[in-house]
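pasting for the record
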Amino acid sequence: MNKVHLPKQLMLILFLLIAGCTAQSQILTEGFEGGTFPPAGWLNIHTAGDDPDALWETATTGADGGQDANGAPFTVDPHSGTGMAQFRSYDFLWENASALTSTSVDLTTPGSKTVSFWMYRDNAFPNSADSVSVYINTTAGLTGATLVGVVHRFKGLSPIVTGADGWYRYSLVVPGGFTTATNYFTFLAVSDYGNNMFIDDISVEEFGACTGMPSAGIITGPLNVCSGTQVILENTGATDADGMTYQWQSSPTGSGSWSNILG
């Protein structure tokens, strides 16, 4: 039985929203905290350009980011923990590239999959299209790999963001054709001589397929609430399963915009 205590509100009509059943689980995580780089089982290979030292590297707190939009130097801290991966586009000339490839990932379980990571993005060097491209392949390399998505360092390039310089999380849907036990994800950094690039907290997650029709149950209690009073509404008979969540929402008129009831 789900109960909600309502605040003072006139003519409150309640709506119960089933957010969905997800059965989410992580099948790969990497936060670059292990002290060795690349992490055990990963590959780090220079793939293009004249500088063979243009590779992904490990970085910790206070890493050199390059110059901000005003020309002042700035530093970058890991998104979490003490480690992150960096590619020094600020030092590596145009077209140098490095491929950081994961250990093998089993994608045989049913349901959709995503590959997620955090990337530091800034607003300097707008003419430099430094980027990190994510690929998936059934072998540990780029030959025959499928592009999953691209994130540019400069915030004015895709995907465009207007917030402050800093960490942003990107979740990319894994193409449905990859359902075997052996798969690899590659993060290809390409320099366009802009600021350094940083990624952290990589994860591959699966969302188990839902079966059957969820039931929202029956809501009992008064529909109208007078100002200055409280009421308890109860929901009975709602489907209860792992990964299923509920959210109470309210609207002053029962139509138009609905807002979540906190707690």
